[in-house]
Write a structure and sequence with these properties.
This is DUF2827 domain-containing protein. InterPro entries: DUF2827. The protein folds into two domains: 187 residues, 3-Layer(aba) Sandwich (Rossmann fold), CATH 3.40.50; 188 residues, Glycogen Phosphorylase B (Rossmann fold). The strands form two sheets. It has a seven-stranded parallel sheet with strand order 3-2-1-4-5-6-7, with helices on both faces. The protein has a six-stranded parallel sheet with strand order 10-9-8-11-12-13, sandwiched between helices. The chain has 17 helices and 13 strands. The chain is α/β, with parallel strands linked by helices.
């Protein structure tokens, strides 16, 4: 293997607006967490976030740009040992330039690209006017939750074996967003948080799936809430389903199913628009219900659990957090939800501590993760050492 050394690393993002927020999607958070991990390497890597769009960098981005500097591609193209293409794609011409000067190029897959492309083809969802398949990567890295659906798709088209790499998270973005919220966004039982509310023992349920594809959709969580409501109507104050206003207004199939649910007929369910996770949890939530199908790790789970919110979920790659149920078992999910409704507040502080301990293995500051990524970086230069 090549000798380990400090590297100059770029991580791409695609900024679409000069004032773009971090909660539009998880891509920018992903870039920041990975940058933080590299910064904590004992090898002393230098890291820059590399913007691949023409949007001007005005210095008003919602993170510490002194700690996580953002540069345009043209400004850093001659000063990189490694470019990790994560949230913004470079062109064929830019690829040739980097390869000619010996920069290692890594494709970092953190999304279900096969599913997204398949849905684009079947449902005429335009992803791009033209498709550029870069076949000049030195490595393709993919996080665990997308390996099953997407690894073979990527490996075949990009002509490079796909390597599974650790999922990385950090509470930095969460803390940044919650610092001005009550209790800094952490969960509190309602008798502590709102002592003047008469029905404070009733629980407010929230479903926050994106509802943009089949992988994370709100229907199973809605059915779980329905089953729990049938077993104990007086225990539930309200159910909010975010990212679902368009479904409740314009989808005959969704409306047709929802109208048969007791929780809907009782006026205890609302289908609302898009909200930022930390604020909605802080203001409207006691318990979160989630369901995934092929995305068994997600920042949302950690955002909720780190701050002590009860999470009823079926994500098997982090089954040690929250209240786990298997697969598509709505009845099991409802049992976990009822358990959380009745017992979560009995030991809510210990629950939060347990969640944070379980999440440690995913943190950007975890020494084992840092060492693994240093090994991956080292491997990029192993061929050069042998030649």
């Amino acid at each position: 293997m090549a000798q380990q050394r400090a590297l100059r690393i770029g991580i791409t993002i695609g900024i679409r607006s000069e004032t773009e927020g971090m909660w539009v999607n998880g891509i920018k958070q992903n870039a920041l967490y990975l940058a933080k991990l590299f910064q904590h390497s004992p090898l002393g890597h230098s890291v820059a976030i590399v913007n691949t769009t023409s949007v001007a960098l005005t210095g008003v981005l919602p993170w510490d740009t002194a700690r996580f500097p953002v540069r345009q591609f043209e400004d850093v193209k001659d000063a990189l040992d490694v470019l990790i293409e994560l949230g913004g794609q470079i062109s064929e011409e830019q690829t040739r330039y980097l390869k000619a000067r010996g920069t290692k190029l890594v494709s970092y897959c953190c999304g279900p690209e096969y599913v997204q492309m398949m849905e684009a083809m079947i449902f005429n969802r335009r992803l791009a006017d033209t498709v550029f398949i870069n076949q000049q990567y030195d490595a393709v890295w993919a996080i665990p939750q997308v390996m099953e659906t997407t690894a073979s798709f990527l490996g075949t088209l990009r002509r490079v074996p796909v390597c599974e790499v650790p999922f990385v998270w950090d509470p930095m973005c969460l803390n940044m967003r919650t610092r001005d919220l009550p209790f800094e966004g952490e969960y509190r039982p309602r008798e502590i948080a709102t002592p003047d509310v008469a029905d404070r023992t009733k629980k407010r349920l929230t479903v926050m799936e994106p509802n943009i594809d089949v992988l994370k959709f709100c229907l199973y969580p809605l059915l779980i809430a329905e089953q729990a409501f049938r077993s104990d109507r007086d225990a539930i104050a309200h159910l909010h389903v975010t990212n679902a206003k368009h479904l409740a207004r314009h989808s005959p199939e969704f409306i047709g199913i929802a109208q048969y649910l007791d929780i809907v007929k009782a006026g205890k369910a609302s289908f609302v628009g898009r909200y930022e996770t930390p604020q909605f949890l802080s203001e409207h939530t006691d318990i979160v219900i989630s369901h995934q199908w092929g995305l068994a790790l997600n920042y949302f789970y950690f955002d909720a659990c780190w701050n002590g919110f009860a999470l009823v979920h079926n994500a098997q790659l982090c089954r040690e957090i929250g209240y786990y149920y298997e697969g598509n078992d709505v009845e099991a999910g409802a049992r976990q939800l009822v358990h959380a409704i009745r017992r979560h507040d009995d030991d809510w502080q210990s629950y939060r501590a347990k969640q944070r301990k379980a999440i440690v293995r995913f943190l950007a500051t975890n020494l084992e993760l840092i060492a693994r990524y240093d090994e991956l970086l080292e491997g990029l230069f192993a061929t050069d050492q042998r030649e």
